[in-house]
Amino acid sequence: MADMTTKILLFIMIVSILSFGFGFNAEITFVTLALMNAIRLPVTFFFPLAVGCIAETLVTMKRVKDVLMLEEKDVESKSFINDGRPSGTIKLNRYSSSWSKKESKTLTLKDINVNIEPGELVIIIGPVGSGKTTLLMAILNEVVQVSGNRVVSGRTAYTPQEAWCYNGTVKENIVFGREFNENKYERVIEVCGLQRDLKLLAYGDETLVGEKGISLSGGQKARVNLARAVYDDANIYIFDDPLSAVDSKVANHIFHRCIEEYLHSKTRVLVTHNLQFLNRADKVIVMKDGNCLAVGTPQQLINSGVDLSSMIGEKKEEEKSEKSEFDLRNEDINHNEDDEIDKTAQDYDEYKESKEESAAMGTVRLKVHLKYYGAAACRWLTVVVVVVSLCSQIMFHILDYWLSLWSDSHVIDQSMKVMNESQSNSTNITTESVPQASRYIWSDQKNNIMFYSITMVALLIAYSIRFLSNIELCLKSSINLHNDIFHKLLRSPTSFFENNPKGRILNRFTGDVGLLDQRIPLTVLDLNGKFGIVIGTVILTCIVNPYLIIVCAVLFVLSLPMRKIFLRTARNLNFYYPLAKSPVFNTVSTTFDGLTCIRAFRFENQFEDQFMVFMNDNNACYYLSAVLSRTFGFILDWFTIVFFAFLTGLLFTGSHVFSGGEVGLVLSSALVLLNEFQFSLRWLSEYETQMISAERVLEYTQLPSEAPLHIEETKPPNKWPSKGFIIFKHVFLSYSNSQPILRDLCFEVESGSKIGIVGRTGAGKSSIINALFRLVEFEGLITIDGVDIKQLGLNDLRSKLSIIPQDPVMFEGTIRSNIDPYDEYTDETIWNTLHSVKLADIFKAIPGDISAPLSENGSNLS
């Protein structure tokens, strides 16, 4: 629409001049047109762009300010206090805390008094939600201190309750940027029970763990986190229930070899629900409802009548010896496990997780453009865009040509009138001496003004339709592609998410789809207009002087190699730009997930440096792209200046005499060409590089999909399954064409029975669940109440099964929406369920009870 600005202003000027009875000529018309074209881009493009950028900058500054004004940790207390006590001392005196300063009246810890001496092993127990983890956070200074005193002397190392890994190798996750000591490293691997696991991994400790440790089992992730803490030369070790993720044999090994022996001289604070370890602690802290109920040695607590088993909400069981009958049977089970490796211990399809994000190099293929516009699913709109674009551009240039004829005609009419009235001139000017083209102009100026006005209105309408139809076509394509890839993503198998980090997926939906939404529609519109103006201008100038065809051809030929060089470089930069952006998203996501760990290990600066490296790589691509664009524009400016010089020479040195209108038309068109030719090639190159994002989005439309959700022919009865009788018969299951994890598995589960599946980490326990839910397709036969589950739609199968996953998942919403996402049950039913799992009293104490909001991943719950 910016191209219409000069046309509208010129129309207003000419109509105003004629309305007041003044005459106009080519000099006035085309000089004015040239001046208007000179200020058109700054006024209609750069000024609105600057206003928009200022508005975006103000919004961005406000958002940055909001982040900077967020509540922060007390910087002065970030360094652990040392008041002269030996390293490893922890002292909380009448300590109370809350999660934030705004909620200082809601205490998470109340009047805590704890004194831990260097070298002590302290075990913290208590029921769910009693404040055990909060007490550890208080030691790490991750909660807001409301009252009391806190003294922590020495360096700390921390193992979180939910194991945290970043996207690196096993070794990198353990060493965590510290100096590598091979002897120390091997010892840590042994005491943390990781030797066997590393032998089973195809690349050993150089295996990439994937985002959030996706390539490791829950037990392996917990032990990697434990090894990270143990490898650190700290004075205080904080363990938040790391033994819950491993079996009893591994738990005994870790407690004895690691916590008791290797760290015997260190201060150790352990949260656990395993009562068998209590009698080996120097001190036990009993927590309930944020209060410290009791502190003392295990014998002191027993003598004082504290029922330790009730403190963790379990029925007290007789403690078993370290070599119990169950452990002996466990050894038999694990004896020949070396070849029974679960998916999480696989070579990950020959190191597939290490592959870089894919994107096509070279020219974007024609089918990408066709698929992009075809995604709009609106053929009539495509036809409208093509027809209106052609018509509007033809009208645009015909109006310029007609205006040059009109200005010549007006000058000739005035000259004829003056010369015919001159008595000294005996020769009258007749119509035979009037240029033939000027005879297409009406002698009555009212008719000319009427024609000019009607043509301008028609041109304005055509341009408006072209603008709206172009934008609508591109936005329809973008919306449909977004919906398509989102649907494909939801239907993708789990292997896709294992091979692709969250940041990479987010980049497709933010960077690439965002570019399709915001930049490509405007680029297509501008490219449409710029090329139309360039082609039309060249045709007009060649009509006036056919010799200009040679000059235009030379200019075009010279510009081709420049465009090729620019486009190749720009395409490579645009290829790397989204790839450089993915690590930025990954780093931010990983840092937020493991923020407590990073702070505990004092690694904030290292992660900041890593983030800056990725950010600089990302910015370097953007900066080089801008430099390349300006360099290309500078060179094209020289090309068009040479063209303008040749054009001027041909107009004034040839034998043919051109009228003022013709000269004005050619020169004003050439001035337009100076800008439009450069911009047309730049926009074409921008368009081709931006279409890389379209190609990347289209890649996601080809994602593999799971089996159909519903299969009407094999849909089970509504009451299926009525008994729950499960049969596994000759079941084989493998991941990514690797060796089978489940091999000829056969067993039956009787209706109503309770089955326990045991085995070491990587034995295939989770694979049985994956097969039952068909998260991974298998060979063989699995039936439920006689129905082959491979013949069912996935929704028909999974809607009849329920699972408590190894890693709990909660969605942002309310407690109720997480329990009953489809709103199928009454509040009474939900409360009865909460009573059965011992959560009713806890949620009743929360403001809003089951309608209370839950943060992402349930971060505001224990």
Automatic annotation (TrEMBL):
Domain ABC transmembrane type-1: 383-689
Region annotated Disordered, chain positions: 317-337
Annotated ranges, domain ABC transporter: 90-314
Transmembrane segments: 39-59, 449-468, 531-558, 632-651
Listed Gene3D superfamilies: ABC transporter type 1, transmembrane domain (1.20.1560.10), P-loop containing nucleotide triphosphate hydrolases (3.40.50.300)
Broad class of where this protein is predominantly found: membrane
Keywords: ATP-binding, Membrane, Nucleotide-binding, Transmembrane, Transmembrane helix, Transport
Gene Ontology MF term list: ABC-type transporter activity; ATP binding; ATP hydrolysis activity
Superkingdom as given in the UniProt entry: Eukaryota
Subcellular location: Membrane
Family per similarity comment: Belongs to the ABC transporter superfamily. ABCC family. Conjugate transporter (TC 3.A.1.208) subfamily.
Protein name per the record: Multidrug resistance-associated protein 4-like protein
